Amino acid sequence: MKQQLLFLSFMIMPFVSFSQEETFSINAEGITLKEVLLEIESQSNYTFFFVDSWLDADPISVNFQNKPLNTILTEVFKDTYLNYYVYKNQIILTPNNLVYDALPEGFFGSENDTMGNSLTSGDKAGKRNMENISPIFYKGIQNRNLNKPIKTLSIGKETTAKSNKKYSLSGVVTDKVSGKPISNLAILVKSKNIGAITDSLGYYEIKLPQGANLLETQSLGSENLRTRVVMYNNGKLDISLNETYEELGEVFLETTNNNNVSDAIVGSETINVEQIKNIPLVLGERDILKVATTLPGITKAGEGAAGYNVRGGRADQNLILLDDAVLYNPSHFFGIFSAINPFTSGDVNIYKGSIPAKYGGRLSSVFDIHTKNANTQKFSGEAAIGPVTSNLSLEVPVVNNKSGLIIGGRATYSNWILKNLDEESLNNSEASFYDIIGKYHHSFDDKNKIQATGYFSKDKFSLTSDSLFSYQNRLMSINYEHKFTEAHKANIIFSNSDYKFDINYENDIRDNFQSGYNINESELKMILDYELSENHNFIYGLSSKLYVVDPGEIKPIGGESEITKLKIPRERGLESSVFISDEFKISEKLLLNAGVRYSIYAALGERSQRIYETGLPKSTATVLDTLNYKNNEVIETYGGAEARLSARYFLKPNLSVKASYNNTYQYIHTLTNNTTISPTDIYKLSDLNIAPQKANQYSLGLYKNIDNNLYELSAEAYYKRSKNLLDFKTGAKLFLNENVETEALQGVGKSYGIEFLVKKTRGKLNGWLGYTYSRSLIKLDSEFNEQIVNAGRYFPSNFDKPHDVSLVANYKITKRFSFSANFAYQTGRPVTYPIGQYDFNGAEYVFYSDRNKYRIPDYYRLDLSFNIEGNHKIDKLAHSFWNISIYNVLGRNNPYSVFFVTKDGKVEALQSSIFSVPIPTITYNFKF
């Protein structure tokens, strides 16, 4: 049987009635409405057109003996919202509304008919009686706020009887969590000055004109909901609302929004910050970026490693933005904790495939994190107390309904724990961190808004008695928004970011020293958003960023230290860009997002630059000259056009295919010869001797939603080529090296993979399962042996992990109790092993394999947690939440790294692990 929805955009041919002689007999118990229609089709040449979801699946009983078809259909559709229309041997079902053969005379509202003839007096009378005709038309209203789509509901069943001017809409309004009725809630249609108030039982009744009405709810303590209702007849609409002062992570808002299928952007992810409180993580700390690693294509080099690897890219190839300012080190405590406060975070969007044109400067991904706005009506807050850390955030109204301030802070008391451990080797250890963030936002009027954010974090650690390491992030941003019209707005943003680390070494008086490093950047950008029409949405603007890098210094501590003071000259660079993109709706099926970004970078003086002999390795022996550049004098420039293309094509309304192409430039590099990124890694700007990194990425994806978006399925494949990737010679000295280009190797890379993701978005059991197969390879080849690695062949990068599986599951036992589980499996990362020994001049040496030829053991981990919500009473001081979790339930001794030592003339392999035993945690959270 044909089952499809027939869309009518023009008048249908005259009605064809049923044959008077044709009758049917159907007698059945427990038959569904769909089976009734199938039986009619089997007895005749009629074909029904409908959507399965329109038909009630509950069984019914029918008893028709030699009855005309219209009698049968009228009876079986009597208690439904379905109407039917017959055209020849086709029967078209329609929800709520009727299909009309013709419009009444005078419908188009002119004194002439459609042929230009004058209307008769009778025609004019028909025009005057327009208000009594049945057909209901309404103009679709475009919703510009994509974050809050307005749902459209049809109410009642249209009939052929004379139309009323108004219909009755009634129902009950309840709290979504407790189920209790909400009284004294206003239900309004502002444009028509119509309103009603719920009674003590939450009941309301309101008279609405036929056609479309924009219904709004207003009440203190409950969310404001906007719903468009189309009135065809009297009907019911029950409404459930969330409390405004508590956004429970367990609540799933049901909506027809299917952005994962309909958007043109490939490889984008959104993290719901409220939901992640149930995911069991180490030491009970809610962690946004750790949750990101459970999504396909995003990994870490190892447990406890700082930095993230996205689609085979290096950790320094990710642009991590906090309110439009760059966060250079997003980790605390060697990567065990994230530097992002979850209590103050709002939107988290990750772009790993198709990167919008407004972002630039990195090759692999963008993590765009925004702090939420404070409550402007009442004072509120949230806090958490855990075994190692505590967290507190406060929301303070400044001007009622106009401005507010949110402040958040986290700190650890791990120093106190270390001092009380019965372990002599840790008595002099130190490990602590804290971070604080504040955001103020103010709405001057509907067209002008401003927000300002400040953030600071600091880590200190000392795992030996002679060295103290510390590093800190500081950033600020100011964002001014102006609306020229509802369709055209502009954001002017200024940001500044600063990252630094210090090392204090005090052991031998002659060797005591203090060393440090600092990078600072300031950016000014303007982003404009212009919705030209329903088919074109332009985003365009320009930006300019100034880098200032102090590559490092060392100075003696105390008068007896023999350390020579050294300061590496400052580096400066200016990166500017202009960009434009258009989301172009070519047809109902095809959506194109096309953009271009042109970036240009200039390395600036005051600095000295060596000129090396062409075609020879860079070394002291091949220096031809040294050039001195004055302050702000341009040393070298790089740049080019960056294409950002992506497209979506609907195969079906809930099935789409997407493709994208990006090319990107990156003018800043990380100097490290560690396996993973560390707090003491330093950054190097492109200059006369170090070229910028470049990448080209191709992506293709298939996306499918099932059962009204209950399940989301996706499969994405990508292929990326990179140039000028920075690597280094074995044993290279990078820190405090004024001519680091003599230690550098620049090679090419390629990465490819396929990612699968299955999500269940709501219900008692929800979560996701992700699997990634990927490869990340690099090639370092040259005409000179000293610059060749692995014979100039491609070899696995340090973070190449072909197989990656993540499972996140939440099961809600009751409204207050839930169970969560998190499972992760990854292929072991590459490592270089010693494969032999040899003697030379009486000394024993180790002979190593090709770089990254072997792998450490595979990684897997299972975490479990039990979550307890406090009771949902409205009148109480605070709303609480307990999380009882066990990290690494299986006690898997996952190796972080493998290293080799020579002991008693023999080479022994050792491995280090971060968490090799189950770690139980109890964390108490509360909102007030």
Describe the structure in your own words.
The chain is 5% helix and 52% strand. The protein has six helices and 57 strands. A hairpin with a 4-residue loop joins strand 47 (803-812) and strand 48. Its main location: membrane. It is a multi-pass membrane protein. Residues 284-362 form the TonB-dependent receptor plug domain. InterPro entries: Beta-barrel_TonB_sf (IPR036942), CarboxyPept-like_regulatory (IPR008969), Oar-like_b-barrel (IPR057601), Plug_dom (IPR012910), Plug_dom_sf (IPR037066), TonB-dep_rcpt-like (IPR039426).
Summarize the structure.
It is a multi-pass membrane protein. The chain has 928 residues and is mostly beta strands.
Features:
928 residues; mainly beta; Phage tail protein beta-alpha-beta fold; Immunoglobulin-like; Maltoporin, Chain A; 3 domains; 22-stranded antiparallel barrel; five-stranded mixed beta sheet; 6 helices; elongated; disordered N terminus; Plug_dom
Which structural class should the secondary elements be placed in? mainly beta
Low-pLDDT stretches are: 1-17, 110-132, 245-256
Instruction: Report on the biggest sheet.
Output: 22 strands, antiparallel, barrel
Number of domains: 3
Percentage of residues in helical conformation: under 10%
Q: Please provide the count of β strands.
A: 57
Estimate what percentage of residues fall within beta strands: over 45%
**Alpha-carbon distance between the two ends:** 57 Å
Question: Counting H and I runs of at least 4 residues, what is the number of helices?
Answer: 6
CATH class of the largest domain: Mainly Beta
Radius of gyration, in Å, reads 33 Å
* Fourth-level CATH superfamily of the largest domain: TonB-dependent receptor, beta-barrel domain
Mean pLDDT score: 83
Membrane topology: Multi-pass membrane protein
Organism: Salegentibacter maritimus
Protein name: Carboxypeptidase-like regulatory domain-containing protein
Subcellular location: Cell outer membrane
